[in-house]
Structure formats: structure tokens, C-alpha cells
Design brief:
- By secondary structure, this protein is mainly α.
- It folds into 3 domains: about 200 residues, Up-down Bundle (Growth Hormone, Chain: A), CATH 1.20.1250.20; about 30 residues; about 240 residues, Growth Hormone, Chain: A (Up-down Bundle), CATH 1.20.1250.20.
- The strands form 3 sheets. It has a 3-stranded antiparallel sheet with strand order 1-2-3, with helices on one face. It has a two-stranded parallel ribbon with strand order 4-7. It has a two-stranded antiparallel ribbon with strand order 5-6.
- Helix 6 runs antiparallel to helix 7 and helix 13 runs antiparallel to helix 14.
């Protein structure tokens, strides 16, 4: 990346350096590389996770248990993004919080690398905590590099940053997945720790190029608030320790004692957060109307992510047991399927950006509700497509790898019609009072979707069956049709937001 740094005059929003990164503030290179390595570690571990959980040389769990653990883990990462933002806003500021997050993630992966079931779950918890802290704040730091929302370079900067995410996500399964599956599971997890160490190291070394705003604590806790927060945290921690100690010593403890509370929280907390915002008396009529419309998008997104994120669990476990993981006679590791989505994102995202602009110039660009409906129908269609390889496997044969690639392709197209649009509409429809918190609310849609999958798996539902896959696909398509049918009502509630 160093070859892309060119001398340039000092500009506002380009703190601490005369160099630029593709014409952007030099700090973008620091954040780009940090996020790339963090995503390398995260997606590499995530590609191995369900396979390790079911493998005879791993934890050798059932497919349902593996899917439950995977889903609960992913939902927890996004759930913790909300307190992660609070932590930076009230205690450390984004820059110190991201540094702390990187260390916790690295420690979590090292813990996963230890050959013990007990330390494995502790490692998952550490990675989830660190990811929640980092996810909530690193994008905020990208925004700090620019002169407010009107800086002409801002959108381009976030686009470059998004490329870093997908580069890390693409490379991770190819490297970490291969080593984990073919050499040693725990060595694969150790490689994820190395990736995060590289990201953390360059973040600390390149910190001088970041904006001073990233070191600022926006609304620091008062001394009284610190004492109160510490007291409440200690109380809840003590309650949890005593409760699980009693359950453990009684001999009644199973993994569900941990998974069920997290899953329930993943469903209840999003409802409580949205209800609290909706009931806020400080919101004017326009903001109340927009929040009503936003609930439609939130529920639609939760249904979407419920199916989409099974690409890393349900589909991966199916590929491990029932697919021919070969192309032109060449065998490849199952974890490599997880590289399909990021490479397709990088290929198709510019196409969709061009398409929306071209349609907009002609006055034919679909509205937000239509794009959401399209995303839901497409993710539903991907699971209807999944019925074909399921049928092949039921007949006693191995399904071709291209069936799974086709499913990931349809899901990626669905993601591009819904996810970027969801991020955009979240910022546009956020009430002024909750402007900085609404991105965390959007992440809660992912939490709710994955928590639903986790709850089904905990209940013993086999998600790799024709009946369940058909039901999920139908739910997504019906939800998409419902959004399409009520789009005029939703548009009316959105007011002047387009």
C-alpha cells in the first residue's frame, strides 16, 4: 500500500501528515489496514468455527448444537456493538477503545488456540467482546478524518474502507481455513491471533495520522456516574457468578444455561431499545412517524440476516457432510466457501453503485422499500435454490459445489440491495436525539436474526432439512411481498426521507 501514498499539500481533515492515501487523509491507510487485519482474524476464525464444532478432531458436537453456538456468537458480536459505542462515548474515546478491542480480540484467538473445550468458549467470549468494541468505533474514526458530512471525499473514503473489510474477509478462509482444516485446528486459530496482532501493531504505529477527535471522549462520565456504573456492573457480575456457581455445583449445568440467556437477550434487547426510542416524548411528530417506518425496515432486515448468516453455519455444515467440494477434479477446503461472498461483493458493488446512479438519472431508481423487498425475496430465493442440493443429498449423492456457489451468489445480490440501503436509511431516519446511537440499533437487526436461528437450533430444530429450509424461504418471500404491498404507507411515514 505504501506505493499509493503521494506527497500532497496539507489539507484540513488530513491530520498530522502531508501524505495522502489515494487522495484521502493518511489516517485512512491506518484504519484500512487495521480493519483488514481484524476482519482477516474474525472471518478466518468464523470460517473454521462450525467445522471445528462438528469435527471428530474438534468438539464433535451435533449440527444443531454447532449452529446454535455459531448463531449465538455472531448475534453477541452485534449486540455488543451498542455498549461498545457507549464505552467509547463515555469512558475512553474511540481511539483507545479500538486499541483495547484489538488486544482483547488477539487474546481471544490465542485462547481459542489452546486445546481445551473450556478455554475455547472463553476465547469465543473474548473475541465477541473485542469485536463489539471495535465494530462500534472504527467507522466513527474514519468519519473523523473528514471535514464533516459535506466533505466531498467522505463517501469515497468509506468505499475504500469497505474494500479493506472485504479483502480481509476474502483472504482469511483461504489462509486460516486451509491451515485449520488441513494441518491443525488450533494452529488456524493462532493464525487469526497473528492477523489481529499485525492489525493492532500498525494501528499503534500509525496512530499519529489519526484525527485528534478520535482521542476525545464526547460525553465523559462524571465521578458520580463512574461510581454508580462500577457499582451496578459489579452487582450484575456478582449475580451472574453466584447463579452459575450454584448451577455448576448442583451438577445441572449444560451449555444451554449459557446459550439460552444470550439468545433471549438477543431477541428482547432490540425490542426494548426500539420501544424506548419510540416512546420518547422528546421526539416530534415527524421523528415518531419515521421511527414507525423504520420498524418495517428493522423487521425486514432481521428476517434477511436470519437466513443470510446461515451461509456460515447451515450451508457450511451441509457442505462438510453432503457436497462434492471439488472443481474440475481439484479438492478444496470447506472453509473456502466463505471467500465467495466477499469476492462477489467486491466485483458487484461497483456495478450496483453504477446501476442506482443510472436509474436515478432517469428518475427510475427504486425506493428504499422496493430495494428491501427485493433483498428479502432474493434471500428467500437462495433457500428455495438450497432445496436442490438438499434433494440430491437426500437421494444418497453428493451435491456439486456450484450449487452452493449459486446460493452464495443470490444471497450476495440480495445483500447489495438491502445492506448498504439499510445503513443509509438508518442515518437518514435517525431522530436527532439518537443520531449517534441508531447505527447500533441497525446492528441489532443482525442480532435479532441470528438469535432467532440460535433459538431454533437450541430447541433441536435441524435447519438442514427440506421442510425447515422451505419454511424459512417462504417467510422471507412473504415478508418481501408484504413490504412491497405496503410500500406507499411506509413511504408516507418516511416523510421527506428518500
Amino acid at each position: 500500500m505504501a506505493s499509493s501514498l503521494t506527497k500532497d499539500s496539507v489539507r484540513p481533515g488530513n491530520p498530522g501528515s502531508e501524505k495522502t492515501f489515494f487522495g484521502h487523509p493518511r489516517g485512512l491507510a491506518t484504519l484500512f489496514m487495521t480493519e483488514m487485519w481484524e476482519r482477516f482474524s474474525y472471518y478466518g476464525m468464523r470460517a473454521l468455527l462450525p467445522l471445528y464444532l462438528v469435527a471428530p478432531g474438534g468438539l464433535h458436537l451435533s449440527a444443531a448444537s454447532a449452529t446454535a453456538i455459531y448463531s449465538v456468537y455472531v448475534s453477541l458480536v452485534y449486540l455488543l456493538a451498542l455498549p461498545g459505542g457507549w464505552f467509547a462515548d463515555r469512558l475512553l474515546g474511540p481511539r483507545k477503545t479500538v486499541a483495547l478491542a484489538g488486544f482483547i480480540i488477539m487474546l481471544g484467538h490465542l485462547t481459542l488456540a489452546l486445546p481445551s473445550a473450556g478455554t475455547f468458549y472463553a476465547g469465543l467470549g473474548l473475541v465477541a467482546i473485542g469485536s463489539g468494541l471495535l465494530k462500534a468505533n472504527i467507522s466513527t474514526m474514519v468519519g473523523h478524518l473528514y471535514n464533516g458530512p459535506d466533505d466531498a471525499r467522505r463517501d469515497g473514503g468509506f468505499t475504500i474502507f469497505y474494500v479493506g473489510i472485504n479483502l480481509g474477509a476474502f483472504a482469511a478462509p483461504l489462509v486460516i481455513g486451509t491451515i485449520g482444516e488441513n494441518v491443525n485446528w488450533h494452529l488456524g486459530f493462532a493464525l487469526a491471533a497473528l492477523g489481529m496482532a499485525l492489525g493492532l501493531g500498525q494501528f499503534l504505529l500509525g496512530g499519529r495520522h489519526l484525527s485528534e477527535r478520535s482521542s476525545h471522549v464526547p460525553t465523559p462520565l462524571t465521578a458520580e456516574e463512574k461510581v454508580s456504573t462500577l457499582r451496578k456492573s459489579a452487582l450484575w457480575a456478582a449475580v451472574a457468578i453466584v447463579f452459575y456457581a450454584i448451577v455448576g455445583f448442583s451438577g445441572a449445568y449444560t451449555l444451554n444455561w449459557l446459550l439460552v440467556p444470550i439468545t433471549v437477550a438477543g431477541l428482547v434487547i432490540p425490542v426494548l431499545v426500539i420501544a424506548r426510542i419510540k416512546r420518547d416524548k422528546d421526539l416530534d411528530r415527524t421523528e415518531q412517524s419515521r421511527m414507525t417506518a423504520y420498524i418495517w425496515f428493522f423487521v425486514a432486515a432481521a428476517v434477511f440476516w436470519m437466513i443470510y448468516d446461515q451461509g456460515g453455519s447451515t450451508l457450511s455444515i451441509f457442505a462438510d457432510s453432503s457436497a462434492k467440494n471439488t472443481i474440475f477434479g481439484w479438492d478444496f477446503p470447506v472453509s473456502w466457501y466463505q471467500s465467495v461472498n466477499p469476492v462477489m461483493i467486491m466485483a458487484l458493488a461497483p456495478v450496483f453503485a453504477w446501476l442506482w446512479l443510472a436509474l436515478n438519472r432517469r428518475g427510475k431508481e427504486p425506493g428504499t422499500a422496493v430495494k428491501f423487498a427485493s433483498g428479502l425475496v432474493l434471500v428467500g430465493a437462495s433457500f428455495f435454490l438450497f432445496l436442490a442440493p438438499l434433494g440430491i443429498a437426500d437421494g444418497g449423492h453428493k451435491a456439486a459445489a456450484l450449487w452452493l456457489v449459486a446460493i452464495y451468489f443470490v444471497q450476495t445480490v440480495g445483500e447489495l440491495t438491502l445492506s448498504p440501503v439499510g445503513l443509509s436509511v438508518t442515518t437518514k431516519m435517525a431522530p436527532a436525539k439518537y443520531a449517534s446511537q441508531m447505527m447500533g440499533v441497525w446492528f441489532l437487526a443482525v442480532t435479532a436474526g441470528d438469535a432467532t436461528t440460535g433459538l431454533l437450533s437450541i430447541a433441536g430444530v435441524d435447519l438442514n432439512t427440506t421442510g425447515i429450509v422451505t419454511l424459512e424461504a417462504a417467510v422471507a418471500v412473504v415478508a418481501g411481498v408484504a413490504v412491497l404491498m405496503y410500500r406507499k404507507k411506509v413511504k408516507e411515514l418516511m416523510g421527506d426521507v428518500h
